[in-house]
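Justification of resources, computational component.

The compute hours requested in this renewal are based largely on the per-chain cost of generating structure records like the one below. Each record pairs the submitted sequence with a full structure-token output. That output is archived, and it is also reused by downstream analysis tasks.
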Amino acid sequence: MTDFQHIRYEVDGGVATVTLDRPHKRNALNGALLDDLEVALWEADDDKGVHCAVLAGAGESFCSGYDLSQMADVRDGAERRRRTTATIDDDSWQLEQGQRRLRVLWDMHKPTIAMVHGYCVAGGTDLALFCDMVIAADDALIGFPPARNLGSLPNNMWLYHCGPQWAKRLTMTGDLVTGRDAAAIGLVMKSVPPDLLAAEVDGLARRLALIDPDLLSSNKRVINMGLELMGARTLQRYAAETDARAHRAPSTREYFAAVASEGLKGAFRERDERFGDSRVRVREPEIRDAQGRFVDPDSRSHS
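The structure output for this chain reads:
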């Protein structure tokens, strides 16, 4: 079995559990972690004793996205390559390299389950939505805030999970949806109370482990082929190319200027503070004050 630096890999009773293990960074994705993840997932797929794989995150969150302090490292060892991001083609080439590493969750024959808790944002959603099934804690927060000023989404399975309207609502604003509301719109398969999340995922994984892995593979690949016939794989390439173009937007240049002058935390604060509460209300009206904070509709004055 391979030794890993940034993940934990365990096999028990036909279930391989792959745990992102950078809790001090809320499991932000860097190149070394993605290297480990890709190797571990293919190892699980190659192991005849494994029937399914669970993807989880150590600490307080599933995954906080790409580690922007190590952005060159994230893009498949970009610092070691001849290509930079100087042109649109260079940029899309780099994005496609990273995309292939994440898409192992889709391409591997064994079914994959994402166990989402805490924050699942930006690149964390790329990981979760490439999985075959997503189970979230009710209070998990899921979204892609970088869509507000840092390009478009380089991987985009949102359309296939929650349909065009909610995909547009969430990716155009970068707002966050709770696990409970994500289940209501189909972005995740199911949500449960946080204290029951691990047991819920384990129960499903153990049921999958009762099935011949060749049959699991057959059914996964039939359904994935259906998604491919709806353009899912082609859309991923288009997403990377579009993100490369979106990186030339004025707001993206302003973001990097803010990072240079204020640091990452300052740039994030400048991006998000005007939005107030970034959460979405799926069932209730979204009435906000001038600062973007929710207002109880019953508390409004009537004239």
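The longest strand covers residues 7-12. The chain has one domain: 7-275.
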